[in-house]
Amino acid sequence: MIRIYAIFLRQVLLIRRSIHRLLGIFYWALLDLLLWGFLTVYLHKVGQDRLSGITVLIGTVVLWNFLMRVQQGVGVSFLEDVWARNLMSLLASPLSIREYMSGLVVVGTTSAFFSLAIMTAVAWLLFSYNIFQFGFLMIPFVAILFLFGLGLGIFTTAMILRFGPSSEILAWSIPALIPPFSGVFYPVATLPKALQYIAFILPSSHVFEGMRAAVFTSRVDWQNLILGFLLAFLFVIASFFFLHRSYRYVLRNGLLTRFSTE
Description:
Strand content: under 5%
Number of strands: 0
Distance between the termini: 32 Å
Organism: Candidatus Sungbacteria bacterium RIFCSPHIGHO2_01_FULL_50_25
Pfam family, one: ABC2_membrane
Structural class: mainly alpha
Subcellular location: Cell membrane; Membrane
Membrane topology: Multi-pass membrane protein
Protein name: Transport permease protein
């Protein structure tokens, strides 16, 4: 636990001493919220009663950025050690890969909930949008997205570890593939039939479909949410397994040194 806390404390101290790291926690999230928030206000005025449920977009933007913050809290924190050429020193110490990743998970969790609190407050102050209108449904919504974001962060970290620092773009490009199939801004039914099968296996799509169902029909398919939770949980387990395999591959083939030379 002390080693995990040390990794967490190190990241906290880096954030405290660097304003751009602190801004990075919520800058892009707030930018997305302002963009989609004002678009929602405009569409609501133009459509009047016909688009009365359009404000659900604000909620989906808030929760999507929460997922991204979890993922980047893990993936980008890992990349900072790569950029500082500090990764090899950390992994050559008594610190295990499990302890190291657990520390990054705590960092991602803390920054994600901090960002969620700020976005929730801004959504209320600027757009009078109360994300807690979903009541107890917020618990499964946040839990599923948290697990999925965690899995994405671990998966992208494993990919970079396996293929080297030159593949760092994966930390942003892999998560960027998710929104078109998750129904963040439109129902999954909008997608072609073949792509709907992809959406079905993404935990995030079950959350955003559940949000729309709660707003438009006042009903929620609990089976879908349970399925989303199981998919997210399995993805986290699979990502940890892939990370462990990638780490063993790197050690076995002496590839860890490239994180100090490339």
